[in-house]
C-alpha cells in the first residue's frame, strides 16, 4: 500500500527498467492514440519545467511540442542563464522549481544517473531526457513505437544495432526490451565499441547485418563523449561500419533503417539514404512527440 | 496549375521579388487592418518555429508578438543551445522541426540566401527574417507601410536612402519597389559604400538630401559586417553623412525620418532627433508587428 | 491631480520606498489572497517583457509563473542573444519592447538604479527585479509575507539580519520597513560588511543572535560582487558568522530561518538546516510567486 502511494507520488520515468512490459505496451498504445489524433489535457493548469544542461534540438523541441499539445505551461531552464552559474546544485535548482510551482520536470544532464540524488526528496515527477552515457527512455520508446507501427509484432523480428554502442543511451535498454518482446538482437560496429554487448548478443559484420536485419538500428557516433580515441577516419568508418549505398542495396525489401539523429551524414549512413524510402528517421521524430505525450500524461497519473 | 500548387504548398517569403506589386499592396492592406484592430486566428493549433542564428531584438520580438497575437504556439530555436552545436546543418535542423510539428519557420541566418538549399525539400513555409547581406522582406514591408500611412500615395514622393547601402538588407529591394510604385529614389552616403546603386539612382550629398527628401531613409552602419574598412571616425561620419541637428532644420515641414534601428546615436542620426516629431522610428517598430501578422497569415494560406 | 495621473501612468515598482506602509499592506493582503487560491486575469491580452541581464533562477521563474498564472503572454529577453550585443542601450531596448507591444517590463540589471534614466520616458510600468547592489522590492515583500504568515503581527518581533549586508539588495529596505512595522531589528556578520548599518541597528554576535531572534534573516554572500576582499575561508565564515548546527539548537522554539537563496550550503547555513523544520526558505520561494502576482496586478492598475 505504501509502495503504491510512493509510486503514485512520482510517476516519472528515469530508465526503461522502471517499466514493466505491460506498462511499456500501455505507453505505446497511448502514444499510438495520440498519433491517431487523440486529444487530452489535464483540465487544470500544469507547469512543466524543462532543464537541459546539454545542447539538444530533437528531444527538447519534442518535449515542448508534446507539453503544449497537452495544454501545459512551460518553464524553460537553460544551464547558461540561471543561478547554476552562481554554483547552485541540480538538487537545489529542482527543489526551487518545485517550490515555485513546477508540476513536473524534464531533465537532460551530462552526469550518469543524475536523478539518483533527486528521487528521495523531490516530490514531483522527474522525466529523464538523457543522462550522460546512461539512459534515454523516451528515445527507446519512440524506437519501439516506430518498429511496432511497421511490423505490428516484435516476435521473430531481427534487429541489428550498429555503431557506437559504448556511448549510446538506448542500445542496452532497446536490446533488453526487444529481446523480451521476442525479437532477435544482433550487434555490429567497431569491436572495441561493443562494451560487453558481445557477450550477450551475436556480433555480425555490416555485410552480414544488411542481409539478415528487418531493422537496421544505426547509432550516432557520440563524438562529444569520445576522448580522441577514434583511430579511423570518417571515410574508413563509413566504409567498414556505416550503411553505405552498396550495403543498402543488399537489404531485404521490407527492411527499414532507424537512427536517433542528428545523423553524421556519410559516416553512420550515406547522405542519400537519410531520406530514402527505407528510412524511418523522420518518422521517429514524429513519434517522439506522441511517446512523450504518453509519458507526460502518465506522469500526471491519468 | 502545377506551379500554383507549388506556391500554395509554401507561401513563405524570402525576398521582396517573390511578391507581385498586387501582393505587396494586399499585404500592406492586411497589415493596416491589423493596425486598425483586426483580430484573426487560424482556428487550429499552429506551431511557429523561430530560428535566429544572429542576435536580434526588434525582428525577433516583433515576430513573437505577431505570432502570439495570431494565437500561435512558439518554438524558440537559439543557435547556441541546440544540436547546431553538435554540427547539425541548417537543413537537418529545419527538417527536424518540420517532423516534430512546426507549421512554419522564421529564420535569420548570417549566410546569404541560406534558404536556397531549403526550399526544394522543406514542406512548410519559410519566412526570411534576414539573410546575411541579402534581404529582409518584412523590414521592407514595414518601411513601405510607414510611408503609406504618412503620404497615402507613393507617386511623386522623393525618398533618399542614406548610409551603408553596401551592407543593407533593404536598400535594394526598397529602391526597386518604391520606383515601381512611382516614387523617386536618390541615394546618399560614403561614395565607396554605394555598391553599384550609383549607376541606377542619383547620388546627392546630405545637404542636398535634406532639402529634397519627403522621406529620409537612414540606414544602420552594419559594423559587424565591415572588416575594419571604415576610414573615418564616428564624428566624421556624422558630420559628413549623418543626419545632424543642422541638417534636420533644412528638411521640408512635412518630411519624415525612417531608420530600421538599432540606431547608432550621434552617428547616423543625432541623438536628439531619434524621438523628434519627424521621426517615425518607433512607428516603424509598431508597424513591424502588423506587417508580420499579415505575412504569417498569408503563410497559412488564408 | 497631475501627480495622480502620473502615478496611474506607471504603477511599476522600483524600490520599497516607493510604497507607503498602506500600499505594502495592500500588496501583502493581495499576495495572501493569491496564496489562498484567488484567481485573476486582466481580461485582455497583456504582454510582459522579462529582461534579465544577470543570471537568475528563482526571481526569473517566479515572475514567469506569476505572469502565466495571470494569463499574460511573455517576451523573454536575454542579454546574450539580443541586439544588446550590437551595443544597444537599455533605454533603446526598453523603448523597442514598448513599441512592439510590451505592456510592462520586469528588469534585472547589474547597474545600480538603472531605472532612473528609463522612468522619465518609458510609458509602461517598470518592475525592478534587482538592480546592482541596490534594491529588490519583490524579494523584500516576500520576506515580509513569510514573516507575517508566521507571526501575524510584526509588533515586538525581533529580527536579526545576518551576513553580507554590504551587497544585499534587501537588507536596508527590510530593516527600514520592519522597524516602521514595529519590529526590532539587529544585525550580525563580519564587522567590515556592516556598511553603516552599525550606526542604526544594534550589532550582535551569532551566539547572541540565535538566542534573541524570532527571525534569523540570513543573507547570501554575493561572491560575484566581492572583489577578492574576503579574508576568511568558507569554514571560518561558517563557524564565526554562519548558522551552524550548534547555533540552531540555541534558537527559541518558535523561531524561524529565512534566506533568499541560492544558499551557499555550509557557509551561511549548515547544509542540514536548509530544509529543517525551522527553515522557511522554500516557503519564501512559494510566496515569491504570490507577491509578484500582486505587484503585476497593481502594475495594470487593478
UniProtKB/TrEMBL annotation, chains A, B, C:
Annotated residues for binding of L-aspartate: 86, 169, 220
Gene assigned in the entry: pyrB
Oligomeric form and interacting partners: Heterododecamer (2C3:3R2) of six catalytic PyrB chains organized as two trimers (C3), and six regulatory PyrI chains organized as three dimers (R2).
Gene3D superfamilies: Aspartate/ornithine carbamoyltransferase (3.40.50.1370)
Name this protein carries in UniProt: Aspartate carbamoyltransferase
Catalytically driven reaction(s): carbamoyl phosphate + L-aspartate = N-carbamoyl-L-aspartate + phosphate + H(+)
Enzyme class, first EC level, given as a word: transferase
Molecular function GO labels: amino acid binding; aspartate carbamoyltransferase activity
This protein's pathway: Pyrimidine metabolism; UMP biosynthesis via de novo pathway; (S)-dihydroorotate from bicarbonate: step 2/3
